[in-house]
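protien #1 (seq + structre)
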Amino acid sequence: MLEKIVFLDDDVVVQKDLTPLFSLDLHGNVNEAVETCPEAFHRYYKNLNFSNPLISSKFDPQACGWAFGMNVFYLIAWRKANITVRYHYWIEQNADRTIWKLGTLPPGLLAFYGMTKILDQRWHVLGLGYDVNVDNRLIESATVIHVNGNMKPWLKLRINSYRPLWERYVNQTHPHLQDCVTH
């Protein structure tokens, strides 16, 4: 039976071997992810409506968020905690969009609350789609870099200094890319 999976978002670049992630001990947690607390907008109160009693009664508004984009999911703990049911519950509760407005992170924050082990930041460096000041040493040492944000390297509106990090992995001669604007 499959015990662990590594989830990778569609806007990440894998720079190093991910194999060691499969031997990490999640200590019974379901999710392992990089914490995003240094950035205030990743605290729970920034993502969720705490005036809703369903949220304010169950969650700490100051709780630290974590990054979707590169996660290790421990499937045995996932099944035991009924994560799929929990996730769908929160999606249904937000049908009127009064708990959160947009995005995939808020229902994940709710479903995995108290079940996420923090991963060292060098595994997953974020912000390359919105932050022009990501430390180059951090980028170079990262296993995965994440172009989260609106300025993707394959778009016209982009952060040009990060473009080579993505472009070196693109086969420009591939037939599916011939009609794309990637230059």
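ok now protien #2
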Amino acid sequence: MPRPRTLARTWRSPTPTGPSNVTLPPKPLLCALLVAACAQPPTLPAQADSFPAADGEILITHFVGASVQLEYLDLVIHVDPWGRGDYADAKSADVILITDTPADHLDPELISQLRTSGTTVIVPADPEDARDEGGAERLRQVVGADVMNNGESVELDVQPDGTFDITIEAVAMYDLIPGAPFHARGEGNGYIVTLGGVRIYLSGVTECTPEVQAIRDVDIAFMPMNLPNGRMPPAAAAECVKGLDPKVVYPYHYREQPIDVFVDALRGGPIEVRVRDWYPAN
């Protein structure tokens, strides 16, 4: 069992490879992602990717939808854990970040399984009644969570002497095009996590808002194909990524969206596109 630990918190306001740049999952999963005619793709366990950081590597494990596990040294961060994914080998969390309140982002039961007595859980503000979807009740079930509002940031000290810390910034996450469901400004958070000198942007479900366009110096970005269709389609998501200019991008939260359109729009450019299977067969 990992040792429970409490991370010291300091809240503050934020301050504003090879011949191919596309990496794909194993062939059976690629078939499932890009070719509708492929039948019964196998479910394979998620494998961690890596990215170099100051004192080692950041390990990135994808699960389902928008669910991610980040590891750096002995620190574990879970983002939007959802019980529909295979969490059999997931590690207990030091930090859990929740971007939104629907069930595919906020799963109180899985959060309770991943957290220890020292886990920091960060959630967005209570949703408005118009798009509640049970989110307010789910938030109430996550006892002891810290609420972050758009524009806030927090520094978490991982070691007592302060030699290793992480910074988490909450970025506005919302829709520009009207429709239902509608993600209103202030109801959800994207997050910029800084680990070992590496800045990771986890967008949540958002369009390419002015706040997103203002983000700079991101190394890794997770970019959604928003729902419902018509908001943040693959081509628009790719254009947004070009503005962010990360070293690596993961398209996620795409469901039935044609992921190959996103890949083709970035193919041959300087941004490495890591395509992973976020919707494995059940």
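The radius of gyration is 18 Å.
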